[in-house]
Amino acid sequence: MSLLKIQDLKVYFNARGKTVKANNSIDLEIRENEILGLIGETGCGKSILGRAIVGLLPDNVKIGGKIVYRSEDILNLSENGLRKIRGKNIGIILQNPSAALNPVLSIGNQISEIYRYHENMGKKEARIRTAKMLEMVGIDPKRMHEYPHQFSGGMKQRVMIAMGLALNPGLLIADEPTKGLDPTTKDKIIDLICELVINKNMSLLLITHDIGVAEKMCDRIAVMYAGEIIEIATIKNILSNPQHPYTQDLLNSLPKKGLNQTAGESPSLSSPPAGCRFHPRCRCIIGKCLKTHPQLMETEKGTSVRCFLYGNN
Amino acid sequence: MKILNNEINILKEAGNNRMAAIGGAIVIMLTLIAILASLLSPHDPFEQKLENRLLNPCFEYPFGTDDLGRCIFSRLIFGTRYSLAIGVTVVGITALVGTSLGIVSGYSRGIIDEIIMRIVDIVLAFPGIILALVIAGILGPSFLNVVIALSLTHWPAYTRLVRGLTLTLREMDFIEGAKALRASNIYIMRRHILPNCINPIIVLATLDIAHAIIFATALSFLGLGIQPPTPEWGSMLKAGIPYFRISPHLTFFPGTAIMVTVLAFNFLGDGLRDMIDPKINENILVSE
Amino acid sequence: MTLLSIKNLKKYYFCGLFNKKEIRAVDGVDLEIKSGRTLGLVGNSGCGKTTVAKIILRLIEPTDGRIIFKEKDITKLRGRELKNLGQEMQIIFQNPETSLNPRMKIYDAILEPLRIHKLCSTDKEYEKILKLIEIVNLNQELLFRYPHELSGGQLQRVVIARILSLNPKFIVADEVTSMLDPLVQAQILNLMKDLQEKLGISYLFISHDMDVVEWMSDEIAVMDEGKIVDWK
Q1: What CATH number should be reported for the domain whose range is A2-89+169-305?
Q2: Interface residue of A16, A49, A266 to substitute, partner B, most B CBs within 10 Å
């Protein structure tokens, strides 16, 4: 059953006189009770996709296509309708909690504000709910009167999780929830998110560049490169049988696999190469790759690849 | 987060650009007027024609004449020279001195920082205009003394701004890197810290020119600045006060000149502030 | 042969206005780095590993202990001698985006060490810089851009090129790849290893990623709360 369906999503914006095609015809489906990992390098447009789903992009960004949440196209919603969907049905954990939390409000205030605004709760009731949320993410509710600077990085991330989950959303988007954390803290945060998502029957879109984290958490993985999804498959298939040359290179570059290098740089989103966007760095290049742009095609059940080497592309 | 900031800043930039452009155009115009004053003015600003005193604006005297029969239009045009000269000189001196002290203070910390900042506190403890009045009063009225009085009161703003910036910069990796290269302190301050402070300094300096012009006209208005018969806007304003009821144009035109000039510099400064916001320089997607 | 050794290194900070609290950032650390080899230093953030690095480079004064580099005690070095030390030991920082002056073009940034140490005449600068960027595999057209126009991986290459201009014997690499993507990380680490083979550089390789440290290092020291707790 699909919970969120993205069809032909395009996100363009202008920067320094150039059109940046941050997302170029993205097709993605998030199923009920599923953890979907979105992995890709810095600047491939994965955070922008996350923000586009929750409607957190600035006004001058052009968005095309469809994002359907439970049979409702949220791109066509009014500001008000969107506000209701955001938070209540789709929660987001932003990256960099130090910047996302307001330094002059106590964390209790910041969480209870969500209840008071979205559910018109009274002060007392909101505070009780806040205490429950904090307990759930492993923070002593007594600390709700403290301010963000009194919390460590991992604790702040827990606060962010509590805020993302406050309204029991059906879908949670976590944007690099483990960035900048120590290995031990990282593991704890991963466990916490997994546990909560499974207990509450939610779906999770995990945006990360850390393949190790994705491996531990996800059911399926979508790999993004230069604003496009180039491969979607189950975690098992991705790890054991990666198909797209980029995915293969990415996995081979991990320390465990010997840090094998791939030459070249990721292309800029304002002037991607013609044809397949990976062709300048690809090991398995064929003639077609230079001129024709491959489509995302299903090669076997549950696996789709954007590459001419597979299927009838 | 950065992407968002960026987008918002670009929007802001577009909105404020118009203001900055208007401000900039007026400033350029005023500069041209000051340079070409003798060509533009229809009359000699010092020439007294008592038979023409207190004339209303007419074809021959576009802004009328004052109590001694001098052409107000010509006097205003020449006054531009004094106002701009004072503004630019004062800001030049204060920005130079204030910035140097700020960098030294923020970079060296410790006792030198303490001494410089206590002096700043002392200067800031007095309201600027009062301090300027006292200094101008002691030194006596003249162009040079106005510049001295204003410079002595205006430098702490730069020191504070630059010290704050330096304190942030000195913790950054590229400064640590320069230290690891064993670059001398003077080299680090000159090549690494100063260039990264320039933008905010330019903004502050532009706004400060407006401030200095107001202060200078205020001193002249109170009789402690440039003395008559020099056609300075502040002293013209003062000279017009007794005739305010019968000939309001004596005060109206110098007042308007001061206002337009000050607003132009303020517009320019505000616009510049938004345009050279450092965030715009950041790469759009680097920290996606 | 031992290139650098530190003995019983300590750095205590005192904080608090009235009840001065002693914080032991580094508490009696001994390390030894052989020439042409890599020593990995692992530990959680806040365990004092960066402080150790900065003390070795003489950016922070230690409370106690000795640093011996090339059989010479450099703990108290001053003036001319300290400046010359800058040519022999260098550091690469974690965040490539803040490691370069945002107002300095790449060209000037790479030549800066040579200019500071007056090691290259102006007419030979261009020749020298071409050699350097070839070593780190950097595109020539990037030379006249500003740091914010480059990607993290490119910037880290610039930082390496700039340090290499001095021919250092010893480089501290402080979490050099923790901000980089996997593919870029592989490129940079391979580059560093190649340089070690070609030029015989020793590294103190600081990281919290055990897999990376294992791949990179000959020996590994694990640090926790200011002390070395394990050797591998």
Answers
A1: 3.40.50.300
A2: A16
